[in-house]
Amino acid sequence: MNLIQILEQEQINTVRGGRKLPPFRPGDSLKVNVKVVDVSFDEKTKQTKTRERLQAFEGVCIGRQGAGINESFTVRKISYGEGVERVFPIHSPLVDGVEVVRRGKVRRAKLYYLRGLRGRAARITERQREAASEDTAETAKA
User: Fold this and answer.
1) What is the CA radius of gyration of the chain?
2) Three-state DSSP class for 95?
3) First CA to last CA across the chain, in angstroms?
4) Which residues of the chain, if any, have pLDDT below 70?
5) Closest Cα to residue 35, out of 99, 100, 97?
6) pLDDT reported for residue 42
7) What is the pLDDT at residue 41?
């Protein structure tokens, strides 16, 4: 490893605080817990109050991009009939955790074609259990 990769790895360890994310790839349905900071001003005490809460964003991972500390992933969901996409940095302190709801079987690395599909046409078939256990075994070796 060169010096830049060593420095990046140190930064990743300090930002994530030792928390690990589960292995996931495009096509998987994810539940991303995001820290949301609410700032309000109290007129009575003349102070600003900050409140932190977790908000879940559940949708399909349509792509991963970047490497190292710059790695991010895009999650798409349908909210009130409108498609919503959010890009999350993997090593962000605002991403509290990622939960894999179900694993999808796709043949593309980027699922941008889902933007043009609606309803049943936008469904992704689920990967079989044996394929999912092989994936976890491969990631454990790496």
Assistant:
1) 18
2) strand
3) 16
4) 1, 18, 130-142
5) 97
6) 82
7) 85
The DSSP code sequence of 42-74 is: ETTTTEEEEEEEEEEEEEEEEEEE--GGG-EEE
CA atoms within 13 A on the CB side of 88: 28
What is the Cα 31 distance to its own chain's centre?
Answer: 8
Token pair for 107: 């043949």
Supply the pLDDT for residue 15.
Answer: 77
* The pair of three-digit structure tokens given for residue 11, joined into one six-digit string: 């930064």
Q: Which residue ranges form the domains of the chain, and what is each CATH number? A: 3-132 (2.30.30.790)
| pLDDT (0 to 100) of residue 129 | 75
Dist CA 13 CA 22 (whole Å): 16
φ, ψ at 128 (rounded to 5°): -70, 160
Closest CA to 73 of 62, 82, 81: 62
Provide the token pair at 121: 């046409």
CB 112 within 8 A of CB 74: no
Tell me the pairing of strands 72-79 and 82-89.
antiparallel
pLDDT number for residue 138: 61
pTM of the model: 0.77
